[in-house]
Amino acid sequence: MDDVVRADLIDVLEGVLFCIEKKNSDGIKELSERAIDTASKYDSTHALKFAVLLYAASKILGRCGFTHGVCVDIKKGFLRAKQFLERGDDASVEREVKKLFKQLSASEKKFRSFVDYVVESAQTKKGAGLYKRGVSLARAAELLGISRWELMQYVGKTRIVDEDKVPLRVKDRLNFARRLFS
User: pTM surpassing 0.85?
Assistant: First the structure.
């Protein structure tokens, strides 16, 4: 793992632990956006996995509250992942991320179906985020392990492809039109 990615993920996890202490699920969601930025800049699957995990955790903690038993396990898991990142132990980080995904989905029966849905939608949403940041749709789908069609369907619904990157001022648009038709 690249040192810049490692440092950014450590910083993100420190923020996550703080947000869990303050019971702030929206803060965790914002940190997942920061992780997706890192993933798109450095083409890092580690950062991408953390982005999906953080988004899913924010949704679950936001719905079920921070008093649910899974919250304690999540906090401990994020703390261990941060410690492994600080040591430079990438294999242990991977194992911890997998363990965190399992902890999220191995809860109560009603809760489990919600978690599965959240993780699937988190993958799709973060794939769209990668696409929005300039990563090709095929590469984003490949990195997340989802189908291109699934990602295309979501991107089409969100209208990401219709967004202008930099809106032009009226004066600039008028000058462009004059040059075009003269």
Answer: no
d(CA 80, CA 82): 5
Q: Provide the 8-state DSSP code for 167.
A: P
CA dist 70 and 40 (Å) reads 29
pLDDT single digits (tens) 106-157: 654 555 666 666 667 777 777 777 777 777 778 877 877 778 887 777 777 7
CA separation for the pair 101, 106 (Å, rounded)? 9
Q: How far apart are CA 176 and CA 101, in angstroms?
A: 51
Domain that holds residue 115: 3-181
Q: What are phi and psi of 13, to 5 degrees?
A: -65, -35
Domain count, the chain: 1
Asked if 143 contacts 130 with a C-beta cutoff of 8 angstroms, the reply is yes
